[in-house]
């Protein structure tokens, strides 16, 4: 344990009344660095995803809207993850894995596109593929970056770094749920 690590919970200050506590044994600066890195990486990913979806909405409106909902669910999950910053033995809450991801237009009739995910009627198949690939690749890269950053700081803030692993797993579960709830043929 680092000699500068607090022996009691210390509060990290964030906007919007989010003030996670740093557990005893975690260096306050290191835990803060981890949290801030995750917030920046998530924000950049979310901005890029929303810009990408805006440019592809006309060609695949149903799937672009569906991916937009995933973006919102990821952000909701991130806020829940911050609220659950380790205070004892925190787990990623169900809000991260059930963020209300449903098709924006439930009446849309998807058209089968062979094995795999269906292409909703009116959506361009190549654009649907492009959006799907972008979402999966982007989340994989986000998970990788935040996990690597946390792992590199695990010695200074082991509990906080472990909490990042919970977030990365939550992102993966939410992505899997998003794919499972994909608009299906009637």
UniProtKB/TrEMBL annotation:
Protein name per UniProt: Uncharacterized protein
